[in-house]
Write a structure and sequence with these properties.
Elements: H1 8-21, H2 28-40, H3 44-49, H4 57-71, H5 76-80, E1 82-85, E2 88-91, H6 104-113, E3 120-125, H7 131-137, E4 143-149, H8 152-164, H9 166-171, E5 175-180, E6 191-196, H10 203-207, H11 211-214, H12 230-242, E7 243-252, H13 258-264, E8 269-276, E9 282-289
Parallel strand pairs: 3-4, 3-6, 4-5, 6-7
Antiparallel strand pairs: 1-2, 7-9, 8-9
Helix pairs in contact: 1-2, 2-4, 6-7
Length: 294
Amino acid sequence: MNPTTWTPPQLVLWIKNELTRRGFEGNLRLEAELLVSHGLKIDRVQLFLQFDRPLNEQERSDIRELVRRRFSGEPVAYILGDAHFWDLTLKVGSGVLIPRSDTEVLVEYLVDQFPGPTPTRALEFGIGSGAISLAWGCSVKNLEIDGLEISPQAFEYANQNLELCKQRLADNGSEVLFYLDQPIQNFEGPYDVIVSNPPYITADEMLDLSPGVKNFEPALALAGGKDGLEFYRLLFQESLRLLNPQGILVIEHGYAQKEAILKLMPPGLGLSCARQDLNKQDRMLAFNRLGEPS
């Protein structure tokens, strides 16, 4: 094909076929459309409204650079600079974990259990991009959320996303505050909710991650110690101190970790809910604080 005759749909098809040939998986047609529309600075619908428009050399060069990055294994979300989560479009990039749709099961539970307007005070351990706190805060009224993060890069993206959500949070009468490098031990309760999607990949699993995750996403947000349970031990311990007598701890976990986490559950907490993700894999556990001993 003569490059001077390439149109948006033709380029989408070439990228999709080349991603397939190189062994990439997933919705490769969608990836190709996103890369081309991003390179042309138009939305996806415009790709096909401009179906017969030849691309100029500068446009082809811009798209070629995006495609080169994708062929290297860089995640599409980093290339585009944003990721979709719940009903939000969040800024992401190198140094912050890309939010996954599996994590939306936590937001669904939180919205179900704490829909407002009763005021709710919450703490999120490990905010990453801010996805959980911001999705919840933009969905219900009267939330007060403290979010903790140790990564400066993730913290920067979380604050960008907080600014993007500022008006929706204000309209809901909700307040979200993010704190950098403040250990959970420095905070005082009582909280109605503690929520976390902590690092939970085992040391052995870290060695076998897909190249796109291993080479690009931050290990700090993934590695959960030798057995993957390091942060659940901390969350159980601190929940007994921080939660009010009827408070709830909500955690995401790996698909095979449910039983191991339940064995760590201390006296004073009781399992109240277990949910699966969209792929029918165990993904979320919620624990009730059982109140003060008599």
